Amino acid sequence: MAMAAAINFSGQAPWPHTCSKAVTRLARGTLPYKETCYFKNNSRRIQKHGLSVKRKAESTLFRDRVPVIVMSSNSNSNYWLSNSNSHSVSSSPSETINKFYTSINSKDLDDLREIISEDCYFEECSFLRPFEGKKEVMQFLEELTESMGENVKFSFGHICEGDEYTAGVKWHLEWKKSQIPFTRGSSFFECSKGGDRIIIKKAQVVIESPIKPGSLVLTLLKAVTSLFDEFPKATEWFLSSPHVILHWVIKIYDKLVDTYINPLLNSYIKLWSLPAKIFLFAFKILHHIFK
């Protein structure tokens, strides 16, 4: 006995093929039977055991997402589409970072508190010192959400994951979906397991500088490196304790401002206050005359 099979796939002409070796000894309806028809490229097959049709992916790009169409042969003739890669996805650093920024946008401090570790180390390069511990980090995030108001939101792109629960993301700030200049930045996160979820252990945030010195940066870099090479011991001492030196520079600056700059500015303002009042009075007279 010979059985002929022909199937029409979308966009292709019928491809007839004859299957020999059909089983003829079994009485019809007594036992389940199985017949398989292989095509020339061995990429599609019809398997009659119930009835199912499988299609292998022709591109290796989609090898992990092979759509499998299963057709029931019962009287109801139900059809459904399943994905071979469908499964429950566990928590990951990218999900945690996504929740971090969406929670800031929605001002949900409770959700933020859940994904910040107790020993979190948050380094924001706009500040002189990092925020250490959950309490300091949450205080900073609370002030951040308040300063953003109702219309400013974080807009972030793809979140890239690395090894050992690390992730990075680029972002910028938007006001009513319009990008705010000089607010681009990048954030890098180190996460860890915290019970049944991934939490943030360390973060480093780098923000775009509003000052664009251009080639002046290279000139300054050349001058600084020349000084470093000229005085290596002083350079080693400076690099080993930059925060201490910066602290003294700030103290000297404050003393200088309080002693000289503030009095000078106050006298300058007082000096120009009288001409400003005279100019305003003259402007009001002219406005009244030509009205």
TrEMBL record:
| Xref: InterPro entries | NTF2-like_dom_sf (IPR032710), SnoaL-like (IPR037401)
Name of the protein: SnoaL-like domain-containing protein
SUPFAM superfamilies per the UniProt record, alphabetical: NTF2-like (SSF54427)
Domain SnoaL-like: from-to ranges: 98-194
Pfam families attached to this UniProt entry: SnoaL_2
